[in-house]
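Notes from hallway chat w/ T.B., transcribed later so I don't forget. T.B. wanted the structure written out for a chain they're using in a teaching module, and asked if we could keep both sequence and structure tokens in one place. Agreed to drop them here.
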Amino acid sequence: MSGRVRIDSEDTTHKACVEFTVRGTPIDTNAMRSNFMEIARTLGVDIAFQEDNIFRRTRRLVCFDMDSTLIQTEVIDELAKRAGVGEQVCQITEAAMRGEINFAESFKQRLSLLKGLDENVLIEIAENLPLTEGAERLFRALKKYGFKTAILSGGFTYFGRHLQNKLGIDYMFANQLEIVDGKLTGNYLGDIVDGAKKAELLRNIAFKEDIYLEQTVAVGDGSNDLPMINIAGLGIAFHAKPIVTKNAQHSISTIGLDAILFLMGFRDRDVE
């Protein structure tokens, strides 16, 4: 899938993807998948096991979590550091991502600690969001081939809009911060985008665009991403927490976000 490395290449960090096609009916699909995951952990590689049906090569909608998926940070943790409550918020965030705390409740707890933070801090963070490796290449390819894309995030619209404009994303749903007189109030506006809401939004976008769920892709790293990952035709845990990797259909843990293209059947020569 990845093609050959140039002999005169000076890059020593090559990624490679090989696809094997086999025929037959598995006796126990779950057991095979579990065995592949164990081999992947032992060898330090990613192994994807999927049925090569008509939907694999006709995906039309790709939905992404934002924090620690599209970007290499948890924005709420960055905000907390600036507010002087970094350690408190980080502990709540990690517990929520591991599925130990209800997301909605953890969201309210963390947000309340940010009360009084100046909006200028948000502007600075938004302008310096660290994109995940392979993100720009991935979105160039998705746009080139006519895919619809979406951010479905438990983070904030303030930062989601920045990424939407930068990467040319079609849909963006996240939580809206309440800002009064240039400062955070510690509250939010509208409904909380939690795991159930992400799955609902994926269904709604697919319905609006007249797309089968089997033609959708969902990518995320936290436990609140599992509902959308598990209803999508192709659900991917990306550099995810152990509980997410264990319960997702597929996982990517060793290379960048553009590896999703391999899972969708693209070869490097289709993208370059």
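Follow-up for T.B.: Residues 54-272 form a domain with the Rossmann fold fold (CATH 3.40.50.1000). Might be a good example for the class.
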